[in-house]
Amino acid sequence: MRESFEIRDIDAGGRIGELTVPRAGTTVETPALLPVINPNLDTISPRRLADEFGAEILITNSYIIHGDDDLRERAREQGLHDLLDFPGAIMTDSGSFQLSEYGSIDVTTEEILAFQREIGSDIATPVDIPTPPDVSYDRAASDLETTQDRLEIAEGADTGEMLVSAPVQGSTHPDLRERAGHHAEETDLDVFPVGAVVPLMNDYRYDDMIDVVAAAKRGLGADAPVHLFGAGHPMMFALAVAAGCDLFDSAAYALYARDDRYLTVRGTRHLADLDYFPCSCAVCTDRSPSELRALPDDERESELAAHNLHVTFAEIRRIKQAIRAGNLLELVEQRARSHPAMLDGYRTLLDHAAQLERSDPVSKGSFFYTSHESARRPEVLRHHRRLDRLSVPDSLLLTVDRSAPDAGYDDAWRVQPPFGPFPRALSKTYPLTAETPERTDRAALEAAADGVARLVETNPDAGVTLAHRDWPADVLARIPDGVALVDLADEA
Ligand SMILES: [Zn+2]
């Protein structure tokens, strides 16, 4: 285990953890949101972030502070915590973003790490190379070498109690992301931002984002705290947490407010288009949309930023509760319905079901089948694998109807879409206690048929009869030839 990060609860790839930040003398519960504070303009003051919103950690940019004579001197004299007036943990960025925007910056990793330590940062960042999506493999690999050199410099630097992050780059090349994750994991650095994903999110490429995160996670291993760098829209938090991200930073709350944009967990609305507020925070209950529109610019911006933060922190709490209750994937399914690109992200997450299955708890509250994507959840995969280990009698009836006559067989097992067959002894165990709709869909039937096929293929000598009810021909085509078929609908 990494000393600074302890995992308390897990659901799918998501976890509730405790990040110990020794220099701040505090622990931060994850998943956590780090509001981004621009030291030159605070839309919501850091003190208010702590007192009113419960922020335990924020992030600001040491490069901006370093580049401003007045700020730099005040940060050196007072320290960052007094300068910002924030009692929690403070993470600092290094100027990598400016490097990616403007092509060059005027500090080295050594200098900016020393500066971050000097001004009292609790979690520092080296100057990595944020390689954008879709660049050539050679460029991504060569940038990655530079990033890895910087991580080694950071490892060798005298950073005291300050935690140091180890960004994981590699553009949209999964093998490079995985290699980068593995290299970062091998350092003694502490927090692992998956970098340069903002262009993916700006283009609604949640599918590619999930592939990038999954690859980084394969390299990093299970116990590394992962920061999805630049991800601040609450709509995608549940998806990203389920993929294994622990930390998010939000500049979105302030940037969107500046453009009169109102965040919701189902997407962004423009204040001009709202007749009613779908929210019960103080901002949304004190005023109507038209009253908010009538406010002077700076006041309206500040109020919108406060709403945006409320909705963002509420989603983080909702996600934690879902992890605790074991229904994070049900929450992801709900969020996936808010935008087709989110659905692509969820479907891509399920491409990695085998990776999620490794951390997913064996038992949870209750599996809810709420969309045909549910048929691809890690629990279904795990049940199919479990079928390989079950002993099967010489003659076995598999039936979708628990009251079907089973005379003449050694045993009768239920077949429940989407899981497939299981012996009676397992019927009270997770996930077979699932709540499923009466009107079964094709994906669930296909998954159940695949379970039957797996059982039969593992036990080729058993005589198996499948009693189904009106299964379509192309679902039955997934059942191996030797299985006797009975359609209960014909017998009624
Ligand atoms: Zn609100």
Explain this structure.
By secondary structure, the protein is of the alpha/beta class. 43% of the residues lie in helices and 17% in strands. The chain has 22 helices and 18 strands. The strands form 5 sheets. The chain has a 6-stranded parallel sheet. A 5-stranded mixed sheet has the order 16-15-14-17-18. A hairpin with a 2-residue loop joins β12 and β13. The longest helix is centred in the middle third of the chain and has 29 residues, at 297-325. 48% of the residues are buried. Bound molecules: zinc ion (ZN). Zinc ion binds next to α13 and α15.
- Helix proportion: 40-55%
The overall average pLDDT, rounded, is 96
| Annotation, overall tally of beta strands | 18
How would you characterize the largest beta sheet? 6 strands, parallel
Instruction: Calculate the terminal CA-CA distance, rounded to whole Å.
Output: 59 Å
Rg from alpha-carbon coordinates: 26 Å
Strand order of the largest sheet: 6-5-4-11-10-9
Shape: elongated
Structural class by secondary-structure content: alpha/beta
Quickly count the helices. 22
The distinct bound ligands, ions and cofactors come out as: zinc ion
Q: Please state roughly what percent of the residues sit in beta strands, choosing from under 5%, 5-15%, 15-25%, 25-35%, 35-45% or over 45%.
A: 15-25%
Poorly predicted parts: none
